[in-house]
């Protein structure tokens, strides 16, 4: 017998309601609700300090480049102009030697004579009779800016061409490496020998200390030497806030050249890389450590 739908309306509504519920449950299971998309974080560029005022105050030309490795924010002033790099390159000679040799070879002694000694060699001048290990030469070159020790590292690299090749291998096609100590400090306006830019110096320092130019164990050796530097107390180190750590390498040359390149660690943060290069118009001009310290303070304040 056929049952009429008109005679059982409640049952029909119940069936339809049940089917609707099943349909909703099925759709919910097949397509789970998606969480709302997160809003992308936008890194605001730091306000650029008035480095021009520092140039006027110190009657100098100033080049600054800093980058916060946590977010890529930059501070730049004459960042692509050339300056004599002076002894700041010693981070790179040490890094290039570390690339070439196993760590065990750092204990190998290298010999040199009295004739090899050059000016500003406070450590190596006392060790002519015994020679120096490569580790000691790196330590003297970076911590005390010992020029003869640096030349021993140049010798290990086969001269300036060896360092130039190592620098180019990091991607740096800007830095010119032409001479050894102390000739590389003999600079003049327009002479591109032994020069670089703040941006290029920072990038190459980053490759050797934080990047892939060296394995981690060798990077640690290099960074520890920079942290222990004894020549930088009045330059970048003098401009950092209390509680921040610094590893740096200074440089001094003709025409009032005064430089410092550094890794700076704010508390509980990734490091900031910083290069500050400067010079003056007169060949016999005096250097100004306060210029570097004040430029460092201004650059780092921009990231806070």
Automatic annotation (TrEMBL):
Beta-lactamase class A catalytic domain mapped to chain residues: 63-277
Keyword Cell membrane tagged: no
Keyword terms: Antibiotic resistance, Hydrolase, Signal
Signal sequence segment: 1-33
Known catalytic reactions: a beta-lactam + H2O = a substituted beta-amino acid
Pfam family, one: Beta-lactamase2
E.C. number: 3.5.2.6
Family: Belongs to the class-A beta-lactamase family.
Protein's UniProt name: Beta-lactamase
Organism (species): Actinocrispum wychmicini
